[in-house]
Amino acid sequence: MYLSRPELIKKEIFDISEYVPGKSIEEIASVYSLDKASIIKLGSNENPLGPSPKAVQALIDAAPYANIYPSADALEFREALSKYTVFPVSNIVASGPGMDGLLDGLCRLMIEKGDEVIIPIPTFAYYELAARACGGKPVFIRRNQNFSLDPQKVLEAESSKTKIIFLCSPNNPSGNLLPESSLRKILKNTRALVFVDEAYVEFADRNIVGLVQEYDNLVVGRTFSKVFGLAGLRLGYGILPEWLAKEYIKAATPFSVSFPALKAGIAALLDVEHIRKTIKITREGREYLKKKIPFKVYPSQANFVLVDVAPLKAKAVAEILMKKGIIVRPCDSFRDAGETFIRITVGTSEQNKKVVNSFKAVKKEV
Ligand SMILES: Cc1ncc(COP(=O)(O)O)c(C=O)c1O
């Protein structure tokens, strides 16, 4: 007999829809009877080159010390990040699991029942989930047709209960950057904390992290899951004002980043060749996909492109691609994204060719 005791669960949890991840290779192999080795995974914006070999070696070297807790302040890792970001260590916090852990920590720190957070949609789903789990109420505002953001609309959505404004740049799933002028306008005119998610910023032409020096209400979130190819290690970090970093570490889980992950992160930061190569193939591949996919492809500053397959439905097209062994992400699970968008991670040139040929075949079939 199964027991169920929903009265023990916080009420706000029942308002949360489960996070929808990209499909796994195992799932697609089993559903479509495909050989795992033939499947290409372009649904979760991972690094198609894999992790830096130096990070892999650091993991192997760290393995014998798995019985020891990592340092609580992750100082060695933060020092490496300090060199990489040119910020003092006092402005940097390590986070796990991934940047999601940073979002959780901030919500634990700031959100009480009834507090509001502003989320321009469509965007990354976890802001809503993290806020709701703490009793927060998301206030959604719509992006423009081309996914740009009107800073005035953000400011108009603010109330006395607003605690955090979540902005994503480049935005997932649309790939566009938030202009610095828009961000400054929001920062200057809000009482709330502004969180800018720069998960994909290494693939972009510019970043806004320097503004943390100027504004005491800006936090920038970063991750090792994308350009550094360490999604499986769940490693992230935040750049934030010192006053907030001091409070954040009280609310965040202690030892949230494992010792092997810290060591691999440091090695990945130092592997400049792997970083450069990843950025180069991504930028080239992004242009190729934009030019060759025979549907509307939005300009992207990230390691993915957004394709509008209208008048077809994203789910149907994604299914055709998945049957061919290409895992992509139909965006119908993104709030307010409609039913015709597919997000595809930029892969290796061979994978990108396969993507283009498959889209051409879809176009011919309809
Ligand atoms: C915009 C954005 N932010 C944050 C994350 C989560 O990053 P992490 O893997 O570090 O938790 C993702 C993951 O895909 C993302 O797309």
List keywords for this structure.
single chain, alpha/beta, Aspartate Aminotransferase, domain 1, Aspartate Aminotransferase, domain 2, 7-stranded mixed sheet, 4-stranded antiparallel sheet, globular
Protein model, in words:
This protein is an alpha/beta fold and 366 residues long. Strands 2-8-7-6-5-3-4 form a seven-stranded mixed sheet, sandwiched between helices. The protein has a four-stranded antiparallel sheet with strand order 9-10-13-12. The chain has twelve helices and 13 strands. The mean pLDDT is 96. Helix 2 packs antiparallel against helix 9, helix 3 packs parallel to helix 9 (259-270) and helix 10 (272-292) runs parallel beside helix 12. It folds into two domains: 9-50 and 273-365, Aspartate Aminotransferase, domain 1 (Alpha-Beta Complex), CATH 3.90.1150; 53-270, Type I PLP-dependent aspartate aminotransferase-like (Major domain) (Aspartate Aminotransferase, domain 2). Bound molecules: pyridoxal-5'-phosphate (PLP).
